[in-house]
Design goal:
Pfam families: GSDH (PF07995)
CATH topology of one domain: Neuraminidase
Radius of gyration: 19 Å
Mean pLDDT: 93
Helix content: under 10%
Protein name: PQQ-dependent sugar dehydrogenase
CATH architecture of one domain: 6 Propeller
Number of helices: 2
Largest sheet: 5 strands, mixed
CATH superfamily of one domain: TolB, C-terminal domain
Organism: Mucilaginibacter terrigena
Low-confidence stretches: 1-25
Distance between the termini: 36 Å
CATH class of one domain: Mainly Beta
Length: 369
């Protein structure tokens, strides 16, 4: 093990341990070098896709907000419908959203999805587990229900931890006060067992709440046992956060870093965790994945972030400890429009879905031949 550590890593470790910095300048976004990359459109026949992930069948699994779960052949671009979930109600940015597959899919072919629906006139979100059989999804089991939803601020990205717990992001559903209310599931990151039960070691006994004070977290990825999330700010301070058990992430009392007098007071009194990266003005960050392949060496050890408002893919190079950001590079700005999510294949190709509402695309990026 090295006996030295960079200043950036020291700063990150202090932050991760809960020490407060008064402020931190944004890492500038620099144009990334695409000379050794090649990009192409696999298909342009999607409508508001939300999730893309690499499946165990070597296909891309995708959700669309209108209720479709489909697979895309990364060789031909052909789309195969797996399931249309009829209960889904899509309003604004609501609908069929996050999805994740069981990590032991061959033995346990379970598919976890999150979607909005109408319940007696109330717009809500539920988490449902399906079984994949015969090319479709069967036997739905509701794991978690009655999560507030709205036309926006639904969050809703899913991830499964190495110890097989399901993590769920939920936005404040356009009511900011919910984020600080530990009894309200909105504005939270929740953690449940894969059967829907509540883990005994959750911060609050009998509650799925894992962290709180979130506005609209739309990205979630595990790197080992460390959980990273991307989150929409309001007029300022979009964020990348390291999610920690039981921690308060500040919204609506804190935006970004604890750097105003009121924020410093609230942060000190409420053990607020600060982001490792923030952007002002906002960029509208969405899905993230972690690149640790050799195929595109310049991206190794980086979070890849799909960006909506600024219509780009960001490479967020982490420090060696994974606790801070060394640099941010931007790729394909304004080339494909709004980018919603990103996935990585086992051989190091990168796949991006757009969110433009018409002829939405799957884009493949690989090292140039």
């Amino acid at each position: 093990m090295r006996a030295w550590i960079t200043l950036a890593a020291v700063a990150g470790l202090l932050l991760y341990s809960g020490c407060k910095k008064s402020s931190s300048p944004n890492t500038p976004d620099n144009p990334g070098d695409t000379s050794e990359l090649t990009d192409k459109v696999l298909t342009d026949k999607l409508t508001f896709p939300w999730e893309v992930l690499w499946g165990p069948d070597n296909k891309l699994w995708i959700t669309e907000r209108g209720g479709k779960v489909s697979s895309v052949d990364p060789v031909t671009g052909n789309i195969t419908l797996i399931k249309t979930i009829s209960e889904v109600v899509s309003r604004g940015e609501g609908g069929l959203l996050g999805m994740v597959l069981h990590p032991d899919f061959a033995a346990t072919p379970e598919v976890f999805v999150a979607y909005n629906y109408d319940k007696a006139g109330n717009y809500l979100k539920k988490i449902v587990k399906f079984t994949y059989s015969g090319g479709t999804l069967i036997n739905p089991v509701t794991l978690l229900d009655n999560i507030p939803a709205a036309n926006n601020h639904n969050g809703t990205r899913l991830a499964i931890s190495p110890d097989k717990k399901l993590f769920i992001t939920s936005g404040d559903a356009a009511t900011s006060s919910r984020a600080q209310d530990k009894d309200n599931p909105a504005g939270k990151i929740q953690r449940i067992n894969l059967d829907g039960s509540i883990p005994a070691d959750n911060p609050i006994a009998g509650s799925p709440v894992w962290s709180y004070g979130h506005r609209n977290p739309q990205g979630l990825v595990f790197v080992g046992d460390r959980l990273y999330s991307s989150e929409h700010g309001n007029a300022t301070d979009d964020e990348i956060n390291i999610i920690q058990k039981g921690r308060n992430f500040g919204w609506p009392n804190v935006q970004g870093y604890c750097n105003t007098n009121d924020e410093k007071t609230f942060c000190s009194a409420n053990d607020v965790a600060e982001p490792i990266q923030a952007w002002s003005p906002t960029i509208a960050p969405s899905g993230i994945d972690y690149y640790n392949k050799d195929a595109i060496p310049q991206w190794k050890g980086s979070l890849l972030l799909a960006v909506l408002k600024d219509s780009e893919l960001l490479q967020i190079k982490l420090n060696s400890a994974g606790t801070g950001v060394e640099k941010v590079n931007t790729f394909y700005k304004n080339k494909y429009g709004r980018m919603r999510d990103v996935a990585i294949s086992p051989d190091g190709k990168v796949y991006i879905i757009t969110s433009n509402g018409g002829s939405d695309k799957v884009i493949e990026i690989r090292k140039a031949p």
